[in-house]
Amino acid sequence: MPRKVKWGILSAASIAQRRVLPAMRDCQHAEVVAVASRSLDKARSMASQFAIPKAYGAYEDLLGDPEVEAIYNPLPNHLHVAWSVRAARGGKHVLCEKPLSRTVAEVRPLLEARDEYNVKIGEAFMVRNHPQWLRTEELVRSGRIGKLRSAVGFFSYFNVDPANTRNIEDYHGGALMDIGCYPVKTTRFVFAEEPIRVLACIERDPSFRTDRVTSAILEYPTGQSIFTCSTQLVYYQRMQFIGTEGRVEVEIPFNAPSDKPCRILIDDGRDLYAGGSTVTELIPICNQFTIQADLFSVAIRDNTEVPNPLEDAILNTAVIDALFRSAHSGRWETPERL
Length: 338
Fold this sequence. Notes:
The chain is of the alpha/beta class and about 350 residues long. The chain is built from 9 helices and 14 strands. The chain has an 8-stranded mixed beta sheet with strand order 8-9-10-7-11-12-13-14, with helices on one face. Helix 1 crosses helix 8.
């Protein structure tokens, strides 16, 4: 087996500590060798907790470490591009948390940096390679539900902490950026198409000015998607894909558990009331963050494409960008193309 890719974690962000670092302990192709924070004490505490050899009190120091080959960037949204470009300039491969940024124009420097410095850069949409999503994609492609015509999604949680980055407008917080990006991403790859036009309605928090309830319509060439996302509603998530002969429901589509099987529900609609037409498929226990880091590391070693390349990330950003424009204009908007 090729030697493991040596990773550095750029900040002590919550998602790194709660999700990514515990998962990377089980990686076959990746190992974390350094962590950085603006506080050396925080970095040392995190390094001690996860048995990481090196801790830095400045992001620049980690980027200057010649042992580090790849960077995981979980910084707040408004810092994604700038620090990912700096990492690329230092010859580091970059796995950057989603969403990369709010507009296509802001993301383009990453594409230029990737090509100029000959590094791998990808967006950390861990759901894309979870087996439950690969199975959903397979069911739709195989014609199990007939012709896909509609996708319906909901994703919400409740958070009114003014200090939380998700509630800070200048940090690109809000529902659409934080969680609305997931139904955009998943409907794009299940439809295997790009939206022709989009429409959005946004309600903003009067104090934070971030969008706290956002609803959207995405018109695809062969169907439609609708979803609502919110940072101030009960914690809930679900995705359904509805075709001419059936539907597929992903029970926990985004925060898939790593300690129990996931479930996909397949219904052909023959028995609406008794539920006798529903088949449940169990997806074996796995950790989507472990899968993500391993696949990215294999792409580095084999010099192949990363799981969520920048070209796809830009297309996803284009939809989000268009949704914000639509909410402002009150009209249908067309996502920008590469």
